[in-house]
What we know:
Blueprint (H helix, E strand, L loop, with lengths): L8 E4 L4 H12 L5 E2 L11 H11 L3 E4 L7 H6 L1 H21 L4 E5 L28 H21 L3 E6 L1 E3 L12 H15 L3 E5 L5 E2 L1 E3 H14 L2 H4 L3 E3 L5 E2 H12 L4 E5 L8 E2 L4 H4 L9 H22 L2
Helix pairs in contact: 1-7, 2-4, 4-5, 6-9, 9-11
Amino acid sequence: MAMDRDSKIFIAGHTGLVGAAVQRRLESEGFGNLLVRAHPELDLTRQREVEDFFRQEKPEYVFLCAARVGGILANATYPAEFIYDNIMIAANVIHAGFRFGVKKLLNLGSSCIYPKLAPQPLKEEHLLTGILESTNEPYAIAKIAAIKLCRYYNTQYGTNFLSVMPTNLYGPHDNFDLETSHVLPALIRRFYEAKRSSASQVTLWGTGGPLREFLYVDDLADACVHLMKNYDAKSIGEFINVGTGNDIAIRDLAEMVSRIAGYGGKVLWDSGKPDGTPQKLLDISRILATGWSPSTGLAEGIERTFQWYVEERRRELARHE
């Protein structure tokens, strides 16, 4: 039976970037039986808590969006937390999904699962064909483990657990903390603060040369709901890429964010800091073949995200007045 508006749907990680977008998407389509729990109510790294929740609530469909995420600095600072938390979240939710009869589960991964020097664009079959990028290896290993958990539960138990690998994401509800954020939200915050303080220059990490692909998070949510409604794990394979099929140099991205923020100062690059993987562009031919395609251009998405961030900061400042 297909997921319908009365289905009981658990969104794990609904306060995060992806989970919030999936919730927005489901609500906009009239799905009204949504289960959400904040971290203080349900710690997904604790097996007993997760199994008690599944036993009590019996969700029919699960969007596994919860994860500990961050950029190069966060991955370097907290490697143990990145591998432990993400493995535990995946193992607990996927196993509980099997034990308590979930009809379909969608596991969200990341494009960092691919080898550092894999051919571009990255095809699903490139998984485990080379060495991972060292700056996010703990996170990548946890996400690969989640893919394999879904695959082998499907193989052994006949479950219907899908895995989706999105490219770099951005949008409302992103993490804008400069120590733990990814590159795009970090740029938005840096240029916002530089404009407010009238700073004469902004110094950014690396050379600005690496190429990155960015997907607006509401487009990913659209793809996830599309797959959950219309496709089974056996029809999409072990996992499926979701992206835009286009990338941009970090230097050009910084110029775009600077322009949208209205910042007029200089942008300098600290080439002594790491760049990370030189290029990460996904081959999205499989997802395109299902009839889905992204609808939000990069400049449009950054403009929306920047305006959301500005409004959040205004509200935050008003609360402290």
